[in-house]
Amino acid sequence: MTGLKRMLTGVLCLLLLISACAAGAEQVKLKTVEKALDYVKKNQPAELDLGEIKMKPQELKKIRDAMPEGAILHFSSRWGVLTFTDQDTEIDLNKLKNGVSKDALAGLLAVVPGLRKVTCSRHYRMTNDVIVPLMAQYPDVEFVWHISLNGNHSLNSADTAYSTFNTPMEKHKLTSANLENLQYAKGLKALDLGHNKITSLAFLRFFPDLEFLILGDNPIEDLTPLGELKHLQYLEMFSVKATDLSPLANCTELLDLNLTYCSGITDLSPLDGIQTLERCWLSHMSGITAEEEARFIEKHPTAECNFHGGDATGDGWRHHPRFKHYKGCLKSHQWISFSEIKAE
Predict the structure, then answer these.
(1) Are residues 319 and 210 in the same domain?
(2) Which of 225, 228, 224 is nearest to 209 (CA)?
(3) H-only helix segments in the chain
(4) Is the model's pLDDT at 7 over the cut of 70?
(5) Does 8 map to a domain?
(6) 310 within some domain
(7) From residue 98, how far is each of 79, 81, 123, 146, 320 by CA, in Å?
(8) Of 86, 109, 143, at which residue does a domain stop?
């Protein structure tokens, strides 16, 4: 009999627990922020379900902040054309036509605890100054936004290929300091930064998997960071001020190399171990002797070596199928390795 009593007592406790859990979230119809705040102030609920409402994220944050510490707020809210809930993991703010404020984004992150991706790349107010601090505050959230490099050059944080498309006459050139913001486009595999004012390649530390790089016509002297790009396949670096190619010895997957007009270079031996080279444009390099030219050609018998061509990108340099493919990637902002195309 005692055992039966214990069993019945246990069942009763379990039923009471289930009943308490089911009733844990108070569901009340509070259609305005004022009514919700008044209700919360009077009742101090540990869990509140607002149901279907029309409130902005910052308004919901006010309600949540008025609740006891650790309290839970449930909702399904209509915000313009966008419906969002406290259970969402991804939210696309680009659907909103009238822009998103800093307070609205901060409110959204506060009331949707499981959020892991926010897309806001079409909203001009979502600047570096707004997003970067939020990235530090919410390290588990992926922000897709428009990164400003300077007043005239920007890119989407989801881009995997980026080009300034500068010409020699470009007035708004990027500096090395501007390029530090590239770190927020973590998936970049291709960069065209030709015709700028880049003096330091320190920004390359963010992109060890880079495959394509154009640095032509920049006052670059130190090539050390290039030594970390072990998967680099295309390097176009004409008219730079470098004198030492030693870092390139680590770029053992290079296929296309253009050092035209690099007059400070006298020694090509750091390239001797790169047996993958298929095309080398090395004309107008006044520091290269005939003996060094012959030695290089002997080291790379299967490569197409151009020591006596015309301009930096002439003689078919940019008519190769690889470059045509790369150019398409830069225009679409999405990188597809040439080897993947060949495999198909």
Answers:
(1) yes
(2) 228
(3) 2-22, 33-43, 57-66, 102-111, 128-137, 290-299, 321-332, 338-343
(4) no
(5) no
(6) yes
(7) 11, 10, 9, 17, 45
(8) 143
